[in-house]
Amino acid sequence: MSDDVVEGVADELDDDEAPAPTAEDVLAYLVESLVDDPDSVEIDSVEGRRGVSLEVRVAAGDMGRVIGRRGRMANAIRTVVRAAAVKDGVATDVDFVD
Amino acid sequence: MEWVETTGRTLDEAKDAALDQLGVAAEDAEFDVVEEPRSGLFGRVRQEARVRARVRPTSPRPKTDRRDRKRRVPGTTAPTDAEAAGAEQQVEAEPVMGRARGGRRAAAPPPEPVPVDDLADELASDVIGEGAAADLDEVEPPPVKTGRGRGAERAPAAGPGRRAGRGGAEQHEVAANGAATRRRGADVETDEPTLAEQRETVKTFLEGLVDAFGATATTEVDEVDDDTLEARVVGDDLGLLIGPKGATLQAVQEISRTVVQRAAEPGRGARLRVDIGGYREHRREALGRFTRQVAEQVLDTGTAVALEAMSAPDRKVVHDTVNEIDGVVSSSEGDDPDRRVVISPE
């Protein structure tokens, strides 16, 4: 189980520890592009039975932005992150945590 | 923007037909009902619904003339005549229900000569006339002599109040002028700076995304027209970013649009199309070829053929292609997302 927190795309990722480095990179990049407060974006990766779960936390005021109308943005983000996860060879899902 | 006019048995049908022609979703279109449908006995259609539609401009044009007309009604006597004429026409047009609107528009009172003072007043007070009001500011000597030049100079970026040491009144003036100029920049100068900025935003965003994917590609963004950007990401190994049936590409486009909208002033975001690895272009070409094949088949057999359900932009490709071929016509049936194009002999 790895719990490292990714803050920003520029941060170095330890490939040995992060189970889905590309997916995390892409997720961090997308979310930070959408929010007002990129510094508050936190991503935890949690390995579970069905692959890796990426948990996203953003500033309270930014949650709506990331999720979008009827969850459209959230779904679009999931789609792109899953595509990125193909490079990591693991199944991933994205959870937006309040 | 171009208006299209379509008919249908119901308003919805007419609107759907218009959306097909425009190739956009309902939320991006603007409708004008020209004629309400009227049904005769036993549901027979006596008059088809007729609508006018166009792609909704991202910043609706201010309805200045309508406002002015309303404003001018009380006061002078001359407009009353014009109004009366308008009313007369309106009554004439009334029995032909649907036409009433058109009639009224045609009967718009001729522009009244307005005394210059009033005009200036109106421009200055009218919210929509801001751009013009700013122009007037420049013609009149500015109350504080130094205010104008500086206001114009530092208008785009700097906020008011940067020069804290100045006298209060003068600073106010500067701020007001700055604001006026800034707004004019956005309203009157056809959005050029804003669009260029948005172009950069898209480019930077897509480049960053490709980078995060660990891929190498170049991104070009073209200004297709005043408010449309087309981004093309070209490179190798972009399959992941396209996804099955372009699903990932679609998601990338959606996120890019939101990023652009966020960067722009509210309501001023450009329309954006994103293509990755030439996917959309190839698809368009393939769809065009396929449509021509089907059209030939229809010409040979004389039997109409329904295509599978497609999105509005795809249907537009089909309609446009069929349009170029003599002897066949296309129409759409059903409701989104099951709406499909039917190609029939003429």
From TrEMBL, chain A:
Residues 1-20 are annotated as: Disordered. A probable RNA-binding protein. It comes from the Bacteria. The gene is khpA. Its main location: cytoplasm. Belongs to the KhpA RNA-binding protein family. Transmembrane segments: none annotated. One of its GO terms (cellular component) is cytoplasm. Coiled coil: none annotated. GO terms for molecular function: RNA binding. Keywords: Cytoplasm, RNA-binding. Gene3D superfamilies: 3.30.300.20. The keyword Transcription does not apply. It is found in: Cytoplasm. Residues 1-18 have a biased composition (Acidic residues). This is RNA-binding protein KhpA. The keyword Nucleotidyltransferase does not apply. InterPro entries: KH_dom-like_a/b (IPR015946), KH_sf_prok-type (IPR009019), KhpA (IPR020627).
